[in-house]
Write a structure and sequence with these properties.
Blueprint lengths: L7 H26 L1 H27 L11 H71 L4 H20 L11 H15 L1
Helix pairs in contact: 1-2, 1-3, 2-3
Length: 194
């Protein structure tokens, strides 16, 4: 069984996300303890969130112009700390997703570049082979090898010359021979050899 490459980047992102949860809890604890953090970082988003939530609920239930009371400081600090912790986890998770997306895009670009290089190499090889084929075709046409029919005619003339030399006659010019004459001449040749 072949196991693929271990996804170290994904494991790293998962580790970062897991570390972000205790980090969010520490930020929430610090927000509850620090007056500055509580006043300027936790309370305004918590009050805004409470106002939007209550306003939406009131509109859904059909109440229009009701005044929404702000949360008390302790509840707002708690809600702000929770929102800050969730925002921290969300930002870390979103950052991991963006890093994974960028890594994937870089991998895709690298893969496309490799495919393009392979395609260019194949095109160069096809061009080189086309040139080699043209050179071979030109070489074959330049040598002009005699055809098989011409070779057979030359052999036939040699055989006639030998037969004529044996019989003591002058060689005759080649003429068209019917099939019955060819059979009788081949029989005559075979009887003379015996």
């Amino acid at each position: 069984m072949v196991v693929g490459a271990f996804p170290m980047a994904k494991l790293l992102y998962l580790g970062i996300r897991q570390v972000s949860k205790p980090l969010a809890n520490r930020i929430k604890a610090a927000a509850r303890r620090s007056e500055f953090f509580k006043t300027y970082v936790c309370l305004p988003p918590a009050q805004l969130y409470h106002w939007v939530e209550m306003r939406t609920k009131m509109r859904i239930m059909g109440f229009q112009g009701t005044v929404i009371k702000p949360l008390n400081e302790a509840a707002a600090a708690e809600l702000g700390a929770e929102l800050l912790g969730e925002a921290t986890i969300f930002i870390v998770g979103g950052g991991c997703m963006m890093l994974e997306y960028w890594r994937h895009q870089a991998h895709q670009r690298h893969k496309e570049e490799e495919q393009r290089a392979a395609w260019d190499a194949m095109q160069d090889e096809v061009g080189r082979l086309a040139l080699a084929l043209e050179a071979l075709q030109a070489q074959v046409q330049a040598t002009q090898v005699p055809s098989t029919l011409e070779e057979l005619r030359a052999e036939m003339q040699e055989v006639r010359a030998q037969l004529c030399a044996r019989d003591g006659e002058a060689p005759k010019a080649p003429q068209a021979v019917s099939s019955s004459q060819a059979v009788s001449s081949s029989q005559a040749v075979s009887t003379s050899k015996e």
